[in-house]
Amino acid sequence: MTGHALARTASSIRIEAVTKSFEREVAALDSVTLDIEAGEFFTLLGPSGCGKTTLLRVLAGLEQPDSGRVEIGGRSMAGVPPHRRSVNTVFQSYALFPHRNVRQNIGFGLEMQGVPGAEIAERSQAIAELTGIGTLLDRDVAQLSGGQRQRVALARALVNEPDVLLLDEPLSALDAGLRAHLQLELKRLQRRLGMTFVFVTHDQEEAMVMSDRIAVLNAGRIAQVDTPQGVYEAPADLFVARFMGHENFVPIRQRDATGVDTAIGRLDGDFGGGTHLLLRPEAIRLDSDAREVPNRFMARVSERLYRGGMTEYRLDCGDIQLMASCANRGQPGHEVGETVEVGVSDRGTATLAD
Amino acid sequence: MRSVRLDYALRVFWGLLLVFLYAPLAVVVFFSFNSINSSARFAGFSLQWYERLFRNEAIVSALMNTVVLALASTLIAVVIGGLLGYGFYRYRLGRLSWLVWLIYLPVIMPDIVFGIAEMTFFVAINERLGILSPGLGTMVIAHVTFQVPFVALLVNARLLSLDPQLFEACHDLYAAPWQRARFFLLPVLRPAILSSFLLALTLSIDDFVISFFTAGPQSTTLPIYIWSAIKKGVTPEVNAIATLMIGSVLLVALFSLLAQHGSSGGKQSKGGTKA
Amino acid sequence: MSVLHRETRHMLFTVAPGALCIFVFLVLPSVYLVGMAFLTNGPYGLPTLPLSLQSFRELAGFGFLGWSPGNLYTLIRSVWQTLLATALVILLAYPAAYYISTRPARWRPLMLLVIVVPSWTNQVIRSVGWMNIFAPGTPVSDFAALLGLTAPQMGLFPSQFAVIVGLVYNFLPFMVLPLYAAFERLDTEQVEAAKDLFASPMAVFRHAVFPQTLPGLMAGTVLVAIPAFGMYVVTELLGGGKATMIGNLVARQFAQASNWPLGAAGAIIMIAVTLIGLKVLRDLGRRLSGDREVVL
């Protein structure tokens, strides 16, 4: 890096009972309370319309909450307009200024704050190198590819050394390969800078790969806040489980001291409370593997999807369809139409409320 | 090949179209140098109509009026209309949606109706209050009123074509409202402002009817002068005056072409020189 | 509260000058003109009370000498000449716009400029040009006489023919520009898909090209037909008594005849016919595009 190094700035965020509704709509944010730690990579995850972008805009100051409190770095943000907040945003559309080249785009925020020209040049250069666009500084933004635009938007925000960086689905416009690459890069950058990142996405895999913690939002409320592992392995409810990509839900009919009665039969073990059983595809064993676990039943293979390292089987078990995924270890596998023995243990399962 | 034949036919058609478009102008220019008063026979080259023209004080003052009217009304209309176009963009969903419909009024109103409405209105006001007597002032007001909607629509269209997140990006990147106007809106709207300036200027220069009905005895413009010259049956200088106007329009066209060329050609290097 | 206050001030600053200008100098005069149509013609051609429908009756042709169809003919002629001129403009503009869109991109702005420049001169001057060309004894007039179209030693103006030429000449650019915009955006994959699906050249045009240019055509028609219908200069300079349009009739009530209420009534009829025309065009566009809404 040349000359100026980015100062390590990080702030915690406290969101207290924030409610926001728009005309003709139910509450976009319904009494949301959240604590984000300094230096954390925090993701707001949820389907479109769940309120995640609204929450991000409230943090940026682009929306005023109807009620509730927002504190950034211990300071209340009530009545503080966006241009007085040490918070910067990477917009979903990137929002690069069409009348300015890359260098002028990056320097915009510093210019508005009255930073001297020489310092702007130095800091822009440094941040451009950090984000891998050091050679593009004199390009017109119209000449950039999607990935390059994304980096310019990132550099334009980072150069201001904000307490918090907000990212609104910054990777959603990119193709899969580039996206995976930039996910890693963004994550590394965040670690290196130690800055607080608040990241919005609707892609659960992206959220899991990148985040320290994830908040899953549903219809303006927080459904769960946990580490990626926690959210995936112990989803708080059916919504979170479905959203995290789970497919195997088995309704529980009855429960007693040694196990539960379900739509696929009696299962022994400690399954906890809740109305549904969640089986992770990796936790369903077939044939020889199945014999190691206590609960076994028969099912018919209705579909088989070869995925390289593993094979996915769709299984008909009475009225219920289950998805199992098995590592490929050189055996021939199972054919469609074949009847197989299925084993389920209490490990790799969870129970859910509705 | 069918498409080759079609292409050839289109080429010929284009040529004929250019003849159609420019023959009337060319004829005017050509016969303005005629030594006799005829547009049927060219008797010899002469500048006599131009000499007469510049000795005629009425024509010189009409020329002045034309220039003042066009520039004054266009400048005022670009400022007022630009602000209005921006205001509509900011508040289009709120209390102002009904106003947008009014803006389309001049677009569907034949200019003769507009000219007459202005004229009767100015007369009525003048009778009661003694202000707005017909002259350059009333002409400028009428032209501005006619131009403002077009400017507002152009500026508004440009704003609507922008990514709305750009406004938020300004805000997010520490731009205070005045800085947003100075460092974002004005530069980004510059092409729209330029083209609305040209459009408003064209509307003003092209207009005869509105000027005709709102003019006073002292505020004759060149088109009005030509009109009354034709009506009186006196035509000799008409071609010469018309040639002057055609010439200045061609100059403006050339200028705008160069400007266009300059801005597109300089685009690649622009960043480098500015940075 | 102070935020709201600043918003209001900002709105006033941006919108108020333009809104005021439009309200005072456009809306008020229009309302005044409409009101005038319902007044009585006074001794000096100026409107006076009482309220009456006298001018509409007069406009419909009822005078001291019974009913005369003159004004009705003028209205019908105005509509007819507008339709004819618009149709001719479309015939010229369609191939022109297509041709421009097929040329290399760097030539197109120049070609568009070439189309537009004549309209930057003044209406009166453009008519003067045609008066020069159509005057008695010019090559064009002599040629027309040779073909027996006009009497020898007569010019081609004043005539209905000259008026139509003048109208087409005036409004051609207004059609070329929107049509060109439509051609430039033309989705060529639709054209290729049509060819791929065995469409003949005619069918390709009908199903893949025409529908895509329809919005441009509609916009152009509005831009051409409305001012053509209200034309004053061209008819006055190039047309004789047999080519006058309603704009001339209206103007005459203010300039020479001094019957302001009658002129105001005529102006209302002009606006009414314009609005009816827009409605018809909208319905036509909807029909042509297969019930899809064409934005006008």
Characterise this structure.
The complex is a heterotrimer of chains A (354), B (275) and C (296). Chain A is of the alpha+beta class. In chain A, 24% of the residues lie in helices and 33% in strands. Chain A has helices at residues 52-60, 102-112, 117-130, 146-158, 176-193, 204-210, 228-233, 238-243, and strands spanning 13-20, 29-36, 41-45, 67-72, 75-76, 87-90, 164-168, 196-201, 213-218, 221-226, 248-255, 259-262, 265-268, 276-279, 284-286, 295-306, 310-317, 320-327, 339-344, 349-352. In chain A, the strands form four sheets. In chain A, strands 6-7-8-3-9-10 form a six-stranded mixed β-sheet, sandwiched between helices. A five-stranded antiparallel β-sheet of chain A has the order 13-12-11-14-20, with no helix packed on it. In chain A, β7, α5 (176-193) and β8 form a beta-alpha-beta unit. The mean pLDDT of chain A is 88. Chain B is built from 13 helices and no strands. In chain C, the strands form two sheets. A two-stranded antiparallel ribbon of chain C has the order 1-2. In chain C, strands 3-4 form a two-stranded antiparallel sheet. In chain C, a hairpin with a 2-residue loop joins β3 (62-63) and β4 (66-67). The longest helix of chain C has 35 residues, at 2-36. Chain C starts with a helix and ends in an 8-residue tail after the last helix.
Reconstruct the topology from this structure.
The complex is a heterotrimer of chains A (354), B (275) and C (296).
Chain A: E1 13-20, E2 29-36, E3 41-45, H1 52-60, E4 67-72, E5 75-76, E6 87-90, H2 102-112, H3 117-130, H4 146-158, E7 164-168, H5 176-193, E8 196-201, H6 204-210, E9 213-218, E10 221-226, H7 228-233, H8 238-243, E11 248-255, E12 259-262, E13 265-268, E14 276-279, E15 284-286, E16 295-306, E17 310-317, E18 320-327, E19 339-344, E20 349-352
Chain B: H1 2-31, H2 48-55, H3 57-91, H4 97-103, H5 105-108, H6 111-129, H7 136-160, H8 165-172, H9 177-206, H10 209-214, H11 222-231, H12 238-265, H13 267-274
Chain C: H1 2-36, E1 40-41, E2 47-48, H2 54-59, E3 62-63, E4 66-67, H3 70-102, H4 108-120, H5 123-134, H6 139-146, H7 160-184, H8 188-196, H9 201-229, H10 233-238, H11 246-255, H12 260-288
Antiparallel strand pairs in C: 1-2, 3-4
Helix pairs in contact in C: 1-12, 3-7, 3-9, 4-7, 5-7, 7-9, 8-9, 9-12, 11-12
